[in-house]
Amino acid sequence: MKKSFIFKLYLFCFVLLIGLVSSGCDNPLSSDNNDSSDSETSIYTVTFDSKNATTPADPTSKTVKSPTKTVDELPTPPEKTGFNFDGWFTEEGGGGNEFTASTTVTDDITVFAKWIADTYTVTFDSKNADTEADPTSKTVTPPATTIDELPTAPEKAGYIFDGWYTEENGGGNEFTASTTVTDDITVFASWTTYQLTVITSGDGHGSVSTSSGFYPIGETVTLNATADAGSTFAGWTGASTSYNKQISITMDSDKTVDAKFTHNDWTIMIYLDSDNDLESFGMMDMNEMEASNLYGSGVNVIALVDRVPGYYTGAGDWTNTRLYQLKYDENGMNDTIISDRLSSTELGITVNGNEELNMGDPNTGINFIEYCKNSHPADNYAFVVWNHGTGWRSASTGTSRTLEPNNDGDLEINNIYSEIKNSLNTQGNFKAAAVDETSNDILFTQEIGDMLDGQGIDVVGFDTCLGAMIEVGYEIKDHANFMVASEETEPGGGWQYTDVLDTFKVSDLSATALVDSIVDAYEREYTGTVGATLSGIELSEIDNVMSAFNDFSDALYNSITNSTTQTEIANELYLNAEDFYNVPGDLNIDIADAATKILTNTNYADTEASELITAVNNAVYSEWHDISTTPDYSNNVNANGLAVHFIPLDSEGSPTAHNTAYVKNTSSVVQYPLAFVQNSQWVVDNSDYTGLLYRLWYESF
Length: 701
Prior knowledge:
Layout: H1 2-23, H2 35-38, E1 43-49, E2 61-65, E3 83-91, E4 95-99, E5 109-117, E6 120-125, E7 137-140, E8 160-167, E9 171-175, E10 185-192, E11 194-201, E12 206-208, E13 213-215, E14 220-227, E15 231-238, E16 246-250, E17 255-263, E18 266-273, H3 279-290, E19 299-306, E20 321-325, E21 340-341, H4 362-375, E22 380-386, E23 402-404, E24 412-414, E25 433-436, E26 441-443, H5 445-452, E27 459-463, H6 470-476, E28 482-485, H7 497-505, H8 511-526, E29 533-538, H9 542-559, H10 563-576, E30 579-581, E31 585-590, H11 591-601, H12 606-619, E32 620-625, E33 643-649, E34 663-664, H13 675-678, E35 684-685, H14 692-697
Parallel strand pairs: 1-5, 6-10, 11-17, 18-19, 18-22, 22-27, 27-28, 34-35
Antiparallel strand pairs: 1-2, 3-4, 3-5, 6-7, 8-9, 8-10, 11-13, 12-14, 14-16, 15-17, 19-20, 20-21, 23-24, 25-26, 28-29, 29-32, 30-31, 31-33
Helix pairs in contact: 3-7, 4-5, 5-6, 7-8, 9-12, 10-11, 11-12
């Protein structure tokens, strides 16, 4: 019975086992009997808390199902602006244990993103500064986005710190204390130098040695202005207002300088020969010229100046020959010459040299004109002879011989006068113009004509005595348009150059305006000076004057048929006509007034006298004479602007014989014959004993 029970028990267990196996084979009936299975299979959830990330992890959770014990692969890391992701941790802020893909998961769990704030370094490159920025770098730690405060500025001698930039040399963007920093960055010091801007202006052309550019602070920049041919430097404006061609600019700020160049409307050449007893007046006239501000006027003055020892020690007391371009002296009249010295290959003269030129040599004048036209070309030219002068005089070879009147009408040759070059300093006996004592030479009238021949001169001025003579005008009539000169001796001061230039520079700059400026300034200077005269002659009319004068001379010559008419006509010309003279020296008479006296007081040559007066009036463009008188000296009230030589005077003031240089067809060799003498019916003709002067002074009836 016991074995039956045991057998039954085994059978029950077997059946039970078969039932359990059947329930694991999808027996729908077994669906409610899973308690034993659930107890052996585990599923855990791992949640990834990205802690306010800008971009959360993906996915945000993962499950772990047994028998798997890990997530195997972490989600994509989260992202958070300004922070770096530093892994997952079991506690916030990186606390607890780090959770990785290999961490065993035994339960549901939340892990937390650990964030480490970004730290950016800003490096300040001072670019070879003498003193670098302090500090040389700064960090930005989020949530901060800027450095808030820049380091102390670097320092570099001669330069101005101009800020920090993201690229070298001020390139890229400027970096400031408020610039947002999102990465490590190097910024560069920008160094600014002061800018010098150089410009040129005016209607002329020229160049400046230094161009526009940037210069370190405190640096001195030297600039030289050079005018092109045909232009004149007219001064600086802007950072400098100097009239010096060379200036220096200190760069203590941005600066602009303007070099002005003007077109040469005129180049006025001053042939200033003060190598004689007029030296002090020459220096005075140079200072008068410098007192006129010609900058920007289009008027350029070049002066060739010669001095001599022994007369005047002012104005630097130099005794050589110098070439100057006139420069304005802001201090006005003084005893200092500030004009720019020049060099000339044509003249053989250097800026700092001590050359001595012979101003009595016409080649010096020719070379001077050539230099001016080459180096200072202009639309118009004026040439002024500054010196002593007696107008007509020429020289005969060897001893200067004279014709002496006598009662029987024969022409006797007498050695009365010493050689010209030995009498240069005898008052009244200066011959022509430009006495050079150092060289013991002088310019004769014919040499002046040769000097001006073909030079294209518009106005010739004689700042000398006794230059307004038909003999002079006829010699240069084909070489210039106008002649300005005095019939009378000039006061020592000569022309008033400040007034001349100040007046001319604001005119229309025509040739006639220059003539008017000279004559008008002379009037203002010498009104009240007894006997002063000055006139401007239109040289194109000289041929007409010469023709009328020859007709007048012939008519009077033919009218003299006896001693009575000889005396009558001689007295009108010698005693009554307006005259200009030195004793000893030459007596010259006003041509138009001589014709007027013949027309008014005699019955001879009426038509010819009238035509001569008209011709002179047409030739004299501008004329002034003072009307003052003194008890010892009458005025030149009847001066009309153009004179002619009449008779020499001896030391007693009595008439004496004419120099052979004033005789046509003389047997003597005249070294510098006058064209006037060769073509005149006025002078003595030694070939046939004719000519009005012969009949008046040498023929007996």
